[in-house]
Design brief:
By secondary structure, the protein is an alpha+beta fold. 37% of the residues lie in helices and 17% in strands. Strands 1, 2, 3, 6, 10 and 11 form a six-stranded mixed β-sheet that branches. A hairpin with an 8-residue loop joins β2 and β3. α7 crosses α9, α25 packs parallel to α27 and α30 runs antiparallel to α31.
């Protein structure tokens, strides 16, 4: 970490792009020296190193012996943060990836925002063969930053990059998870101290810096600016308001930011690749020509199509270009295929397909599911102009009825004049009059330069965009809903990026236990805003309660510490739209003073989203009869012994339902309050077998599916602490069954390691012989085959190879029943559907069973009579479910066979659609797959 005594010599901006990484810098002591680009030395060919301003954000993982050590020499010592042997980064990685399929890591930045996979697991290259080294999206991103650090430190050995003032750019629409992973990547790269700034904002800072001498004239007729940033993997929209002070100087304020869209140049390359693939398949006789390309080969073809697209959309482009896909292995040359595509075809597909001229009321289409290629959930509607219409309609309030009159375009795709013209023409059509286009001289490097301009602006040495808080924010004191007092922690107008310390007031912070922090904001403020630390009455004005932040904060020296300590609050409105509240420990006159002093706990509130309405942020109301319900739980499981007969224990659930309604109507907030009451009285479950059965059943039901509430990770942590002790009444079969039902129900909240621990018990219960069972520890709970079947099917986070073993056991059960002439077991077929599902509910998509194994299981199912055994058709539906991801989907020929069988037996239309197209499950199918319904209001995505 940079020492506080080291003054940075340079201000450095890093654009960690989906397609390219760019570095710009300026002299920290001389603002007039100008902003420069760092020439990044990289391999251009084996043994050839050259400096380029763009470092392609690509990694190539060569096979053993593919490249000689001398071919990979760089001017600095070799090393890779991912521990991958001899990876190639940059320009040569692109060349090699276009020649050899399945070894190129692309779009790592897009993966950082994909919540349906484990972004810290080694999953890239997506769909690559088992012998190819893989890295996580975080590690891949870290490797590009580490490469930049090494290149910089080689060029400036006396001014290491980690000691400079660094600004790293991110998409404006990155959520807090993607931002945190970006910071983690920077930390892994040895760059722990930096600031984040949004890419559209950086692009506009670049314009301000370049035009600072003529800015007043350039913006004289401007009132609203739209920044449209379409990169390789993402599309971002931002609005900037323009006003003028009494001196006539423009005052700039960012007012709106769009939602996250995985839509950009990669999608255009993919569309062209599909066109070329179709032509190649039609033009080649034989089996290979008629088949779809693998995910690895399609990725290779995309690289070829990208080059053709850039050529055909460039100035003075030729009439056509040839796209060649080399053969594989020994057929490298002889097996190559070529297709010509014309300039008109590319223009029609890219311009009309991605930037169609649409009306303002034509908002983005929302299908039942988004497109998934290479595992990435691309935007369902590819029309960027429709997404723009949706964005502008959503932010009509900020626009005050007037569409932006000025446009700044950024991103590599706008190097194609046809795309820039089409977007400008569409906006002009919506406005009914032309608009001003702000010149961007180099979209490939504007964001990196703008990051440096932002650093200059923070020092008062360049024009600055006001991103200060448009409202005041308050921390509610006492219990939300009861105490109407709140303290102002961020006054309206507070500058972005600057920490404010509330030194006049002290707060008591509870450690080691779940706590909720409630915020409120002013809806309307006239005149002087509240002062920092001022106490206001929420009932006396127009205030909006925001969603609370629930968390468990631990002492950094002793995680088990549960005392209250004294803290002050420090707040900052970040440049990326979050309100950070730090609880800073105060040194106290006691033995813990030195240990506490300086400890900080970060609370991060996401303040962006759709248009807020009063009431949206209120915590969901729970039943007013919760107190009676907790009293019933206390009577059965409480610490004070009460005379309760067995019947009353057994009927606890029915008694709760009389006061709260049928349990299927209990929503997540109510369920979690009931679980918390049960957890607090967990020791009471041991009083009798009946107590234990009821407690296990209710606890699992109230915490299912293990996630959905902010405090669920903490609840899972507390529940898991009970696992090693097992059950008290281990000879009671129903207690044992309820034990495994509990863990099945909450499996979605368990980590991979916890699920693997459950898998150990699963394997013992199925495989142990009589001698082993006789010596089993008492804490290892017995489980029937059916208990294990349902448990094993729910472990979605275990590696795909282990799932394949579970599936093989299930297939043996089916084959054994068939040999005996018995009907296939319904539970076995259900479990097979879960284990081999192409789209997991809570697990990462990279851990699904490989498609070749699933194909074998489908052939076993096809041998069954689906008219008589309906669950076989259900299982086949989910094994053959289409995801759009070629690395997970079954072959087209087998898919057609499954579809034909489903139609022949009259399977429900949704089942047929699930196999034939990318869809989402309805409530009934979700309930059947999970084994029971989700709590009302909780929706699984995927």
């Amino acid at each position: 970490m940079r020492s506080a005594k080291v003054q940075p010599a340079w201000l450095v901006g890093i654009d960690l792009g989906t397609t390219n990484t760019v570095v710009a810098y300026a002299n920290a002591a001389d603002a007039q020296a100008g902003i420069q680009l760092l020439p990044i030395e990289q391999l251009l060919a084996p043994g050839e190193v050259g400096a380029r301003p763009l470092l392609p954000s690509l990694r190539y993982h060569p096979a053993a012996g593919e490249l000689a050590a001398g071919d990979l020499q760089l001017p600095w010592p070799q090393g890779d943060v991912t521990s991958t042997e001899h990876p190639v980064l940059g320009a040569m990685a692109r060349q090699l990836g276009a020649q050899v399929p399945g070894r190129l890591v692309t779009s790592a930045k897009s993966w950082l925002s994909h919540a349906n996979v484990d972004r810290q697991a080694p999953i890239l290259p997506w769909g690559a063969d088992a012998d190819v080294a893989k890295v996580s999206p975080v590690a891949a991103s870290a490797s590009y930053l580490a490469y930049v650090r090494a290149a910089w430190n080689h060029r400036f050995p006396h001014a290491p990059l980690e000691n400079q003032e660094l600004v790293l750019t991110i998409p404006a629409s990155f959520d807090e998870g993607a931002r945190a992973l970006t910071l983690e990547a920077a930390r892994l790269a040895g760059l722990p101290t930096l600031r984040l700034v949004e890419e559209p904002q950086a692009a506009f800072y670049d314009f301000l810096q370049r035009r600072r001498a003529t800015l007043r004239a350039d913006l004289a007729n401007t009132r609203g600016i739209l920044v449209c940033d379409v990169g390789g993997g993402t599309t971002d929209f931002s609005l900037i308001d323009v006003a003028f002070n009494i001196d006539g100087e423009p005052q700039l304020t960012r007012s709106s930011v769009g939602n996250h869209l995985i839509l950009g140049g990669d999608n255009m390359d993919l569309a062209l690749a599909h066109l070329v693939e179709t032509r190649m398949a039609a033009g080649v006789e034989g089996v290979e020509g008629g088949m779809k390309l693998s995910a690895a080969r399609l990725s290779q073809l995309m690289e070829r199509c990208r080059a053709a697209k850039e050529l055909l959309l460039s100035h003075d482009a030729p009439e056509s270009a040839t796209v060649t896909l080399l053969g594989a292995g020994s057929r490298l040359i002889g097996g190559s295929r070529s297709v010509d595509i014309t300039r008109e075809e590319v223009a029609a597909m890219v311009v009309d397909g991605f930037f169609p001229m649409v009306e303002f009321n034509e908002i983005a289409k929302k299908g039942r599911a988004g497109i998934v290629e290479f595992g990435l959930p691309y935007a369902q509607d590819a029309a960027i102009t429709r997404h723009l219409a949706s964005f502008l309609q959503q932010h009509q309030g900020a626009l005050r009825g007037a569409l932006p009159d000025t446009l700044l375009l950024n991103g590599g795709v706008f190097r194609a004049d046809a795309l820039a013209r089409r977007l400008a023409e569409t906006l002009a059509h919506w406005r009914g009059q032309p608009l001003t286009i702000l010149h961007n001289d180099n979209p490939d490097v504007a964001v990196a330069r703008g990051a440096v301009a932002y650093a200059l602006a923070r020092r008062g040495q360049a024009p600055r965009i006001a991103g200060g808080s448009p409202r005041s924010y308050f921390l509610v004191l006492g219990e939300a809903g009861k105490d109407k007092r709140a303290v102002c922690i961020l006054p309206r107008g507070s500058a972005s990026g600057e920490e404010i310390r509330l030194t006049e007031r002290l707060f008591a912070l509870r450690l080691g236990r779940p706590v909720r922090f409630h915020l409120a904001t002013s809806l309307f403020e006239a005149g002087t805003p509240p002062q920092l630390g001022e106490i206001v009455d929420l009932s006396a004005g127009e205030y909006l309660r925001l969603p609370p932040l629930a968390s468990v904060l631990h002492d950094k020296h002793d995680a088990s510490d549960k005392r209250d300590i004294t803290v002050q609050l420090a707040t900052v409105m970040t440049e990326v739209g979050t309100l950070e509240v730090h609880c800073v420990a105060e040194a106290e006159a006691d033995a813990d003073a030195d240990a506490d002093a300086g400890q900080r706990w970060l609370l991060e509130f996401q303040l962006r989203g759709g248009e807020e309405e009063p009431g949206d942020g209120e915590a969901q109301a729970v039943s007013p009869r919760i107190k009676e319900a907790v009293e019933k739980i206390e009577r059965i499981f409480g610490g004070k012994a009460q005379k309760v007969d067995t019947k009353e224990v057994r009927q606890l659930r029915q008694h709760l339902e009389r006061g709260l309604g049928g349990r299927e109507s209990w929503d997540t907030p109510l369920l979690r309050q009931l679980f918390d009451a049960l957890l607090l009285r967990a020791r009471g479950r041991r009083r009798s077998a009946e107590h234990e059965r009821v407690w296990l059943n209710l606890a699992g039901y109230c915490l299912r599916p293990g996630y959905g509430d902010a405090l669920d990770p903490w609840r899972i942590e507390q529940l898991w602490a009970l696992f090693d002790t097992g059950v008290q009444h281990h000879k009671d079969n129903q207690v044992c069954a309820e034990w495994w039902t509990l863990w099945r129900r909450v499996a979605g909240g368990l980590s991979t390691q916890q699920q693997l621990r459950l898998l150990d018990d699963f394997a013992f219960n199925l495989q142990a012989d009589a001698a082993q069972r006789g010596s089993r520890p008492v804490t290892l709970v017995d489980g029937s085959d059916d208990d294990m079947l349902r448990l094993g099917a729910s472990l979605e986070r275990i590696p795909g190879a282990y799932k394949a073993e579970v599936g093989a056991w299930l297939i043996k059960r089916l084959e054994k029943a068939d040999k005996k002439g018995e009907a296939a077991d319904t539970n076995t077929l259900w479990a097979l559907a879960r284990v081999g599902a192409r789209q997991p509910f809570h697990g990462s998509a990279h851990e699904v069973v490989d498609s070749a194994t699933v194909a074998g299981w489908l052939h076993v199912l096809l041998a069954l009579d689906w008219k008589k055994i309906e669950p076989a058709a259900f299982a086949a539906t989910h094994l053959a479910r289409m995801t759009g991801d070629r690395s997970r989907d079954i072959a087209d020929e087998l898919r057609a066979t499954i579809l034909a069988r489903l139609k022949a037996v009259g399977a429900p239309p949704l089942w047929q659609a699930t196999v034939g197209e990318v869809t989402q499950l309805d409530e009934a199918a979700t309930k059947r797959m999970l084994g029971e319904a989700l709590p009302p209001g909780l929706k699984l995505i995927g």
